[in-house]
TrEMBL record:
This is RHD domain-containing protein. Its main location: cytoplasm. Residues 128-139, 198-214, 255-268 have a biased composition (Polar residues). Residues 158-174, 225-236, 817-829 have a biased composition (Low complexity). It holds the Pfam family RHD_dimer. It comes from Gambusia affinis. Residues 353-535 form the RHD domain. The keyword Transmembrane helix does not apply. GO terms for molecular function: DNA-binding transcription factor activity, RNA polymerase II-specific; RNA polymerase II cis-regulatory region sequence-specific DNA binding. InterPro entries: Ig-like_fold, Ig_E-set, IPT_dom, NFAT, p53-like_TF_DNA-bd_sf, RHD_dimer, RHD_DNA_bind_dom, RHD_DNA_bind_dom_sf.
Amino acid sequence: MTTFYDERDLEEDLSRANCPDEDLQFEYLFEYEPPCSDFSGGDQDDPGLATHKVLSPESEQVFPLDEHYRIKSCNSPYSNLNPEVLSGYENQEARNYLDNTRPPGLALSPRIEITPSREHYSHGRDSLPNQHLNLSPRPTLTVPGHESLAYREPQCLSPASSNSSTSWHSESYSPWASPCVSPSSGPNPADLCPRMQNIHTGSPRTSPGTSPHTSLGEDGGLGARSPSPRPRSTSPQGKRTYEMYRNPGLIPGQRSRSPSPHSGQENPNMGAHFTHAGLVEGVNGFGSSQPGMVPTKIVKTSNQLYALIPENHGDGNYCDQDIKTKPAAEPFYVIPSIWPKPLVPNLCSLPLATAPPLEWPLPSRTDQYELHIEVQPKPHHRAHYETEGSRGAVKAPTGGHPVVQLHGYRGKDPVGLQIFIGTADDRILKPHAFYQVHRITGKTVTTNSYERIINGTKVLEIPLEPKNNMKAIIDCAGILKLRNADIELRKGETDVGRKNTRVRLVFRVHIFQPGGQDVCLQVASHPIECSQRSAHELPMVEKQDMDSCSVLGGQQMILTGQNFSSDSKVIFLEKSHNGQQLWEMEATVDKDKSQPSMLFVEVPSYHDTSICQPVKVNFYVINGKRKRTPAIKTEPLDDYEAQNMGFGIPQILGLSPHSYYHNPRGILHPDNGLMSGMASCQRFSPNLPNQDARFQQQSPAIVYSRGGKSLSSSPGTWHASGVMPDPHRSVLVHTGSPAQSVGPISSGQHPSIIQFSPTNHQLLRAGDAETLPPPQPDNQQILFCDDYPPQAGSHSPGHPQAQAAVTHQQPCPTVIQQQQQQQQPFGQKEPQKVRVSPGTQPMEVTEDEQRRVTVKEENLDQAYLDDVNEIIRKDLTGVQARVHINRKIIGADGDSFEQFPPAPRHQQMYSWEA
DNA sequence: CAGCTGGAAATAGGC
DNA sequence: TTGCCTATTTCCAGC
C-alpha cells in the first residue's frame, strides 16, 4: 500500500457541488483491491528499496521495484523535487503525481486504498466548487468604493480585536509601537498604512480596541459596518450567496472562469502581469520586467521610510498601497526601504521588498534547512470576531502551544519567523481572506511578536534564536474572524466566507545567507477549524489503520478521531471523473466497540468485485442523519463555458481528477513565468490556459538574491534551488514506531501505522503531539514511496532518523482484532437493524450521458489542468489513469441517504440504533 | 479588571 | 411567501 492518490480530485469537487453539506465533510481515501492478484504497495522492509507487493486475497508476494520506473520518474516535473522538502499538502502533490506516473510496466494492484484525504479538513473554502479559482495572488484587496485599497478592509477597519493584541492598524506598520497607541499619536497611519487613511481619516481612534463596534462604516464610510447590532452587510450589486459560490452559473453575468479577484478577467492590470517575466510577477500580479526599477515615490514616516512603487512596475512584493495617491487601476505598493526595527537585535529577516509573496508556495526544507512544526495546533480553535474579545492563542492538543523550529541553521543571528493565517483548502496555500492572525500579548505570552501587514495580510513575526535552538513557542497567535459580508463585498473577492472556516497557521522564515542568496522556507500547520460549532459537532478522523483491502470488503477498519457518536456513519462512495456519484455504501459500524474517539468499521464490499485495477474510493464520517444525495446531477451544457474551455465535455470526463484542487489560477498561467522560474524541468504547452498546480505546490526551495531589484527583473532571479524533492517516489507517512503510535492501533498488532495522505498525516500529527515523545519531527516528515526507495540526501537535515523510519510498513491485517478499550462504547450491544438501501445498481454513465453532463464552470479550469496533466503524464510515463476512491467525513448535519445503494446480499448494511 | 471561554441568542441566508 | 433549518455574528456570564 504505497501508492497515493489525490483525493482532491475533480469528481469529488463536482460531487461536492451537488452535495452542499459535504462542505463539512472530511474525506479519506480507500482503495479496493481486486480479487485477482496484483501489485499492492508493498512492505518496505528495506528502507532503501521500495517494493511492490503482489497481493491476492490470500497471499502476498513482494518484489523490488522496477528500475525502469525510477528512470522514467526522473522525467517528471519533480525530478528535482525532494518530497521531503515539501510539507503537508505539497507532499501529497508529489505523491499524486508520482502515483500517476507509474509506468505501464508496473501493473497496478487492484486494491482498495484508504487514504485520509486532504479533504479531511475539507471545509468551506477548500470544498467549494470553485475554490481553485482563487489561486491567484492577492496583491490587492479592494472594497466597494475603494478599489485601490490593498487590504482587507475589515481588518484595517476593525480594531475591535482583543486589546491584548489590539487591532493591527498601528502595529502593522509599527511593530514596536504600542498596540493601543492612537494612530494620531504614533506613526501617522496616513503615511504608514495608506489603507488606514481611508479608515481613520477624520476618526482617529484613541484606542483601537476600545470600541468593538467602531466600524468602517462609521469611519471610512465604507458602509459595511454599523453599530451593533449591526445589520448584515448588503451589497449594492447583490451579495454572493453560498450557492452562487458553489455554482457560479447562478451568478448573473458572471461568466468568467477565473473569478479570482486577481484573475486576468477581472483585473486586466493584474492579468497582464502574468508573464514569463518571472515568478514574482506572476504571483504578485506585478508585471514588472524592469530590472532595477526605482521606486517612484518615497514616503517618509515618523519611523519608517517607504518606497512607493507602482504596482505595474515595481518589483516589490509586499506592501501597503497608497490609496490616496493612486487610482484604483494603478495601485501602489509600499516597500519599506528601511526594515522595521526588529524586536530582537540582529534579527535576520528579509526585507519586504525581497521576500516572496505570501501566496507563493515555498518548501519547508532544503538540503540545509528545515522549518518544521514540532507541535501542531489543535484542529479546532474558535476564532474571535472583531466584536469580541480575544479568544486566546491557538493551542496545541496537549494544552500548550504550537512549536516551530528551524533545523539546520548554524548562524548566530536570530531569524524572523513569520506567521500568518492561510487557507486550508487544497489549492495553493495563500492568506485566508476571512481570517487574520491575531497578536496575543499578556503575561501568559512568552513569545515576543510584532505585527505587520504584508499586502493586506496581517503577519506576526517572532524571533527564532539560536539560544533557543531556533525554536519558538507560538503562544502569541490568535485567530481573528472577519465578517463574511465585509470580505465578500470587496470588489473582486469571489470567495465566500460561509462554510469557509478552516485555516492553517503558516510559518515562514527568510534565512540570510552569506553568499548573497537567501532561502525562504514555509510550513503550514494542520488545518484548524475555526468555527464554534464544528468543534463539537464535526467528526474527524485522525487515523485509519488500513487504507486498502480486497474488493470483497469485510475487513475491520479502525478510525481514530474525534466527535464520533452513536450516530456516526461511515459512508463509502465512488465518483466518476466528472463528479458523478457512481456508488455509495454505508459501512457497518460496530457500535459496541466504537467510542467517541474511535470507530470500528467493517469495510463494505465494493460494488464490482471483478475489477482488475485498484480502485480508490472516498469514505467519510457523518454524525446524524443525512439528506438525500443526488447520485447524478446533470446540467445543460453551457455554451459559453464550452466555448471558452476550448474543449468538449467528453474531454473533461476522461481527465484525471488529480490536482483538481490545485488550479494555480494565474500563478501557473503560461504567461506568468512560474514554470520557467520554478519548474523548468517540465515543459508545458503554451497554449494551455493553465498548468498543473502541483508544480507550484511542489515548489522548490526558493533561493533568491537579496535586493528587490532582481526579484521581478528576470525569471532567473527566483530559481529553484538545486535541492528539489525527489520526484520519483510516491510518498507516504510513517506515523511512528509501535511505541510511538497512539492507542490500541499502536499495539503489537499494528506496530507501524502507515498513513498515506497528507490529511491523515496532518491529523496524525495533531494527535501525535500529545503522544509521541519529542522530538518526533520526522514522523511527519518521513515521506517515502512505495515505488521508489528513499534517497540519500532527501532526509531531513535535522532528523537523521527520518530514513530509518521509512519502511516499517506492514501489510494491513485482514481482520483487525478488537483492541482493548479505555473508553466505553457508545452503547450496549443491540440488535442492529438492517438499513434499507435502495439503488442497488452502481451508477454507470454512458458516453452519451457524459456528453450531456455539464461540468460546472469552476471545474473547467481544473479540467484543463487535468488535461494537461494527463498529457504530461502520458508523455512522461505512459501511465494509465487510475480510478480514485475517496472518503469523507460529514458534519453532523449531513444528509441522509435516500438513494443509498443497497449492500450486496452478503453484506447487509447496518446503522446505529437510534 | 483584563483576558479568556463556553454557551447561546439574535440574525441572516438557504431551501 | 412562509416556515424551517443552518450558519454566522453578537452578546452574556463565568472563570
